[in-house]
Every structure is written in structure tokens, then in C-alpha cells.
């Protein structure tokens, strides 16, 4: 499987109907207000950024489906290291929470396969959307994604506010996290070579700004967090 940086835009009419009319916003990245513990450090760990700073957009890739699957648990029984993914939307000027925004995520399973395509055409595993609460947050229950041809492990994300798409990007893990995951089944059963962050052509563009802050261990599962700001 490959991601294509030049994919045409796709309509999102159902998302607009769901969320209503509103202002278009520009996506930014922020440091999370309070993390559960220290995250990975080093050259590919999350940077320490004071306040809210602009985060580059990322490619949508070829595997997006406008499914409107409103759910917190997106695993659908797929095996893998458990992951709680917490995403917070905030206003850039104040870093105050955005209530009622929508966060849509999708990613590959441990074997590098996406639902809705090829042999999994009729499945919708590892896809879901949630509306942010009063704290601007959503939390998904999922698994750590696997890698695939020329791509490191990553999670696709879209943000919508007031019925308009405000951000498209990709979220990444530090090499420390992915290296630990590869030693756990079913990831360890794979025999194909793994593409790491340094050799992922899309990570090289702006991935350092989109690395998740991760706590816990591969044996018990992870909590991954990131805060995305928007300019109103």
C-alpha cells in the first residue's frame, strides 16, 4: 500500500450536514496542556513547544472513506498493542478548548492493511469519528498501527469545525515506541522489512511536528496524546 501526496480532494457533504455551518479554521499544533507522564525524547521524539504553533498540513492519502462511523472503539476485533488516542482541539489565540468539533481518524492494522480496500473492502475496522467534549477532547480506543510499503507507522486525522474541514494530517510515533511494538505479536510475526521514520518520505516533510506524546508500555498498551490548535 502507498500514500499519494497528490490525491484529488474528496467531497465531505455528510460531515457538513452533521456539523452545520461555521467558520473555516487553520490547523495548528500545540503542546498538550498536561501529559500523563514523560514522553519519548530524542531527535524523533515530540518537541517541546511553548504555546500554540503552526503545524504543516499532511496528505490525506488514498485510503480515506467518508463513513460517518461515530464511535470511540474502532478496533472491530483487530489484534494489536492497545492504544488510547487522545486528541484535543483548541483555539490558537488562547489555547482554549473547541467544543463540538469533529475528529475523524483512520489507520492500518498491525499487518499494514486498511479496511475498505482490496480483500477488506467490506470492512470498516480502525476508522471512526467523534465530536469534541467541553474540554475540546476526543479519545479513541484502537491499536498501534503497522507499517507498510515505504511508510512508517502513522495515523491519519481530519478535523472539522462548524461543518468545514479545518485540518488534514498524519500522526506519528517515536522510533522508541515502534521498536518496542515490533517485538510484540502480531507485529513480530511479520517478515517484511519495516520502514522507519527516517526513511518515510512523508515523515521527512513535517513529521517531527506531529509525533504523539506516548506513555505506558507495549505489554500493557499505550496512551498517546496530541493537541491541535485552530486559528479562528
From TrEMBL:
Cited Gene3D superfamilies: Aromatic compound dioxygenase
Name this polypeptide is given: Dioxygenase
Domain Intradiol ring-cleavage dioxygenases: 64-177
Region Disordered, annotated ranges: 30-57
SUPFAM superfamilies, A to Z: Aromatic compound dioxygenase (SSF49482)
Taxonomic placement: Bacteria, Bacillati, Actinomycetota, Actinomycetes, Pseudonocardiales
Organism field: Actinokineospora iranica
Signal peptide per UniProt: none
GO MF term (any one): ferric iron binding
UniProt superkingdom: Bacteria
Keywords: Dioxygenase, Oxidoreductase
Cited PROSITE patterns: PROKAR_LIPOPROTEIN
Amino acid at each position: 500500500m502507498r500514500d499519494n501526496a497528490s490525491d484529488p480532494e474528496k467531497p465531505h457533504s455528510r460531515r457538513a450536514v452533521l456539523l452545520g455551518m461555521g467558520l473555516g479554521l487553520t490547523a495548528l499544533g500545540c503542546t498538550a496542556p498536561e501529559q500523563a507522564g514523560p514522553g519519548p525524547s530524542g531527535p524523533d521524539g515530540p518537541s517541546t513547544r511553548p504555546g500554540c504553533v503552526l503545524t504543516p498540513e499532511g496528505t490525506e492519502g488514498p485510503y480515506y472513506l467518508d463513513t460517518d462511523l461515530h464511535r470511540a472503539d474502532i478496533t472491530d476485533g483487530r489484534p494489536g498493542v492497545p492504544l488510547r488516542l487522545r486528541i484535543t482541539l483548541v483555539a490558537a489565540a488562547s489555547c482554549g478548548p473547541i467544543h463540538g468539533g469533529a475528529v475523524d481518524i483512520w489507520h492500518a492494522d498491525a499487518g499494514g492493511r486498511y479496511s475498505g480496500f482490496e480483500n477488506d473492502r467490506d470492512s470498516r475496522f480502525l476508522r471512526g469519528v467523534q465530536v469534541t467534549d467541553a474540554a475540546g477532547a476526543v479519545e479513541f480506543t484502537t491499536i498501534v498501527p503497522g507499517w507498510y510499503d515505504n511508510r512508517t507507522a502513522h495515523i491519519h486525522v481530519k478535523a472539522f469545525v462548524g461543518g468545514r474541514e479545518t485540518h488534514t494530517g498524519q500522526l506519528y510515533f517515536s522510533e522508541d515506541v515502534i521498536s518496542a511494538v515490533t517485538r510484540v505479536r502480531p507485529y513480530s510475526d511479520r517478515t517484511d522489512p519495516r520502514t522507519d521514520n527516517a526513511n518515510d518520505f512523508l515523515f521527512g516533510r513535517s513529521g517531527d511536528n506531529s509525533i504523539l506524546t506516548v506513555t505506558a508500555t507495549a505489554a500493557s498498551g499505550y496512551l498517546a496524546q496530541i493537541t491541535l490548535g485552530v486559528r479562528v
